[in-house]
Structures are given as structure tokens and as C-alpha cells.
Amino acid sequence: MADSATLEAVNIDQDAGNFTYPEDYEHDAGYGLTSETIDYISDIKKEADWIREFRHKALKVFNEKPMPTHWASKDLENIVFDNIRYYLSKGQKPTRSWDEVPDDVKETFERLGIPEKERKFLAGVEAQFDSEAAYSNVKEELEKQGVIFVNSTEGLREHPELFRKWFGKVIPTGDNKFSALNSAVFSGGSFIYVPPGVKVAHPLQAYFRINAENFGQFERTLIIVDEGAEVTYMEGCTAPKFETATLHSAVVELVAMKDAKIQYITVQNWSNNVFNLVTKRGMAHENAEIRWIDCNIGSRLTMKYPGVIMKGRKARGEVISIALANDGQHQDTGAKMIHAADETTSNVVSKSISVGEGRSTYRGQVHIPKHLKGCKNNTECDALLINSNSRTDTYPAITVRGNQHATQHEASVSQVSEEQIFYMQQRGLSEGEAMSLSVNGFVNDLVREFPMEYSVELKRLIDMEMEGSVG
Amino acid sequence: MSQTLNIQNLHASVDGNEILKGLTLEVPKGEVHAIMGPNGSGKSTLSKVLAGHEDYEVSEGTVTMDGVDLLELEIDERSRAGLFLAFQYPHEIPGVTNANFLRAALQARLPKGEEIDAVAFYKDMYAQMDSLSMDRKFTGRAVNDGFSGGEKKRNEILQMMMLDPSYAILDETDSGLDIDALKIVAEGVNRMRSPERGFLVITHYQRLLDYIVPDVVHVLFDGQIIKTGGKELALELEEKGYDWVTQELAPA
Known about the structure:
The complex is a heterodimer of chains A (about 475) and B (about 250).
Chain A: H1 4-9, E1 27-28, H2 35-45, H3 49-64, E2 88-89, H4 103-111, H5 114-121, E3 124-129, E4 132-138, H6 140-144, E5 148-151, H7 152-158, H8 160-163, H9 177-185, E6 190-194, E7 204-209, E8 216-217, E9 220-225, E10 230-238, E11 246-248, E12 251-256, E13 261-270, E14 274-284, E15 289-298, E16 301-304, E17 307-310, E18 316-325, E19 330-339, E20 345-355, E21 359-368, E22 376-386, E23 391-400, E24 406-415, H10 418-426, H11 431-447, H12 452-469
Parallel strand pairs in A: 3-7, 6-9, 7-10, 8-11, 9-12, 10-13, 11-14, 12-14, 13-15, 14-16, 14-17, 15-18, 16-19, 17-19, 18-20, 19-21, 20-22, 21-23, 22-24
Antiparallel strand pairs in A: 1-2, 3-4, 5-6
Chain B: E1 4-14, E2 17-28, E3 32-36, H1 43-51, E4 56-65, E5 68-69, H2 75-81, E6 83-86, E7 93-97, H3 98-107, H4 118-131, E8 142-143, H5 149-163, E9 167-171, H6 179-192, E10 198-203, H7 207-211, E11 216-221, E12 224-229, H8 232-240, H9 242-249
Parallel strand pairs in B: 3-10, 3-11, 6-9, 9-10
Antiparallel strand pairs in B: 1-2, 1-4, 4-5, 7-8, 11-12
Helix pairs in contact in B: 5-6
């Protein structure tokens, strides 16, 4: 349990995110998505020709690919791509000092507690406001060690030799309709490079904020961790509650070279009008480790299946995810583990909570081909239902060929019973407190995997959600 | 203000079946009252109704605790007002540690904005656990999860000690206990006896009352108290059996 100062420092709740500042943008790509939109974005960013071409090709792929409603939620059909603006910025360059950040943007992040967190426990911060980063800073000692932590525009422009090699390689444009969309209009996101042997002790954090209505945020993140190096990256997200739907569609690619370790932590708290359609995948080389820790709270529909391609011998992949679906929300999440070398190990632990009319879906894919030997996978999915209207589905797809592997899969569905709540209330807890304590208990073993500050924040978010769900 | 738990003419039903049929009982602070009765007489229903379980409907009668209308309060409000129920079957709370649960329960009793003193809390909890011969590793285990019957009951007594209620109802606390565990639990209860606290000990067997000696014994049958006496009534009941009560004492 954290002291009150820490609690205060991480005091981000859904209502704290529910505010907006009047629009004042220098660059606005307007509504709808055409090749002109792409040229507009490319012009503003003064991009190299290969990037412009990459975008145009991606738009074509996006237009050609059907919505994946043959397996996914029909709610996707409610996204009106013509009613969305694909690029909004104040024309600002990300500054290294909060003092130089425009007032309304600075106030936004102050209200969300970002500068305070940075002082307390972060090694670097990038704060993105709609399409572009407003603030970006990394501690000096890391910079001296050669750590690069910039936004995607700057990364591609200043360090093409580092980033171009992997950009779009872990997740090809045509991976799915939304990775194609992101590839066409991406803006913002983090580009990180950690040189061989450098172990970044404190987390790097990105914060993604949507301020404008009828807007889509398409950040693109690429993290390359060189041989024997280590990094923890955390992202947080919020948006105000608008009347209309907002779209967030990111692509995140991770590359862990030999013996490297990447831990990627997401604590997302989107308001419940956001379509959150994100593609995340990492490539782990020999003896490297990639862990995705993913908390999905809020949003209208989240579709996200973080994956790891274990390309080198003894590589390890892990996905730990927590999803909370409240009334009117659908958390469609899972994991993808592609074993592509001998003696690779993957672990998936997924816990979902469905409240009221909320719906949770787990989709898992584990692929171990025949020619490999000594691969292991462990998959556990546990669902907690709170009240009879909730819905949960599990679609595990485990393809294991050959007989020299070990896999196990466990799934459970449990309910917070009335008798349990009665017992807890008899000890003096209100119904809401009893519910949130039960939910926190359900996810407790996963939350322990988080850095302390984030586990406190997650507990608060769960408390807020559960308090709100009790009549 | 009267310092009693006062139950008058209580009628309660579950699923339309009336179980309590005009139960009257008064437990003043400082006294230990035992309720004995055969299976199906309404013993557990009484404890659930007093705690406020929503499956039970009170159709008639009053319950006041130190003058406060208990039936008007929510389940958790009754608890915070000073009513404790040691459950016959304590529920498991997966993933929530004993320490966190107790802490949350104590925190719920503080005014908003006030934080529990963690050091004092642990000191107090360890002392109470020692007195119940509970291993300290129980603080880190999920509430009642995988506990033996005896461990669960001991845990109930620990919670009672920590929450320091004005009135405690012990619902068949002796069931599932071997004699050693029974002694430890009884000692815990006896240490809690005080002029500031009333006890209602519900039991099927006289055995528990050898260790928790009551001031008053009530016999419950068919939803009513049909006989009240001193501690010797329990022995008489043990000797003659419930048939004696049902045949001799039951109202025609």
C-alpha cells in the first residue's frame, strides 16, 4: 500500500480525464481520408519520399481490406471514416521543458499528473497531444549512454539508419485493416533505441492524450533494444467524453536483439466513446525476452492482441493482461505467440472482468511448428462475471505440431457471489467497496507484476469503475 | 438510551416461508446469551436477519441496537454501528489477503480522508493472532481461501477482535471444530467479554457452552423462544434432548 503522497501523485481517474480545451490548431487535415490527406501530413512533417510512398501504399491496402466483421464485433461498422480528422496539431515542436509547452497543453498534462510523475520516478517522458508530441525529455545520463527517445517524425528524420531497418517489419502494413490505416496516417508515438548493454533502470513513459472531437489518434511506436540491453516502457492514455466516437489506432513494434529485455506496460483508461484498435507485436531474438503487460479499462470497443515472435533460440514471450468491461463496453483482447525457434517459451495470463452489460472476449493464438523442438507455452485465461447480464467468451487457438513441445491451457470463469458480498458488507464495507476489493483480489497476482506506482493507479481505476457500477 | 440488543416480536420469511414467528429476545451489554434449538428452528435465519441479508424479509416486529432501529440500516451500516456476525460458513474471498481485508474493514470505519495507522494496525493484528495461536503467515493468505474449518472459525474470531463490536452474534461457531480449536476460539471469546459488549451465541450443542459459559440460555423452536433460563438449562437440554422441548414445551 502506498503512502498518501504517492496516492495523490497517481491520482488519475476517469473523471479527471474528462475535460477538454477549446480547439486551436495550426494544422488540421480536415475530415475524411484521401491521398490528399496523406500528402498534407507528409508535407507538414517534411518527410523523405520513401515514407510518403509507404503511406500511399498503406492507404491503398487500407481501402482494399474489408472490415474484419466476419470474426470481430459488428460495432466496427459504426466507425464513419469520413467523419474523422486524421491530423491535428498546433505546429509545435516537442520541447524539453514544460515551461515552453503551450499553456492549455501544459495544463492538460498537469491535470493528469504527468510532470509530477516524471519528477518522481521516470527516466524520460513523451507527452502527445492529439497528433504530435508536445513534450519530450529523457534524463541526461541516459542520453550520454546513447539512449534515443524521440517521436516517430524525428526518429525517421534524424536516425533513419537505426529505425528504417525495422520500421514496418515486425508488423507489415497489410497485417490487418487498422495496421494499414495507421501506416497511412501515423503521427507521433515513440522511437526508442537502447544501445548494447545499457540497462535503463527507470521506466520511460509516453502519455497519449486526445483533446479534439471527431478525431483519430494514430501513434506509431518502434522500440529497438540492442544486445544485452534492457528497458521498461509505459504508456497511459485518456480522452474526454465526447458525444461522438473517437478513434485510436496505434501500431507498436518492438525488437529485442540477442539477450535483450523489453517490458511494455499499458494502462489505458479511454473514455467510453473511443474505438481502440491497436496492433502490438514484438520480435525476440536469441535468448531475448519481451513482456507485454496490458491493462484495458474504458473505451467502447478495444481490439488488441499483443504478440511476440520468438525468432531466436531460447527467446521468451509473455503477455499479462487485465481487461475490465463495464456497461456498454467490449474488451476484445488476447495474445499471439509465434514460436519460430527451438527452446522458445511463451506465457499468457489473461484476466477479464465483465460488469453489468459489459462484454469480454479472449482471443489467443499460439503457434508452434513441427520442425522445432523444446518449445513451451502456458496459457491461462480467467474471467470474472459480476451480475448475470455480463458476457465472456474465450477463443483459444493453440496450434502445436510435432511432439517435442510442452503446452498447457487453463481457463476458468467465476462470479462474485451475493454471499461473498454479504460477508464483506457484514464487516463494514459498502457494496461498492466490497465489489472493488473482490475485483482487485481477482487481478491481484497480476498487479504485483507492475511497478508500484502503476499498481496503485490501476487499483484506483478499478475502484472508480466498480463504485460507479453499483446502483 | 437502553444499552441492549432488543428484538421484539420478530417475524421473518425467506421465499415466502415464515421462519421467525414472533421472536422476542433482549441481550443487554455485558451479558452472554445462548440460543439453542434443533435444526430448522430458525437459528441461522435469526443471525442472517439481524445482519440484514437481503433474502430475508421482515414482515413484523422491531430490532433496536442501543436504541437505534437496526432494520432501517444497510448491511454495512449495521456492521459499522457495532454489530458483528461470526458466520457458520465464512465465505472465501479469492485474492484478497486477510491483512488487506481487515484493513479495508477498519478503514471503512474512519471518517473520509483519514488514513489508518499501518504500524499500529499490524501490531494489533499480530498480538490478536498470537492470542489465537494463528500463524502470522495467515496475514498474507487470501481470506478463508483453502483454510480448514478450524482456521476459518479462528479467522472469524480474529476479525471480531479487530473490529471490536458492541454486539457479536456467533452462529454455530463450534461446528466443524475439534476440541483444541474449540478451546482456543472459546478463550478468544471469553477475553472479549466485557461490560461494553453483548454476545448472542447460537449453537446446536451444549458442548460450546462448557467453554463459553452463558448468563442466559434461550430455547428456540419453530421461530419462537419457548423457554429461557440460566446456564443449567443448557445442561438439562443436553440430558433430555430436543424431543423434551418439542413435546413438553412447544405451544400446542
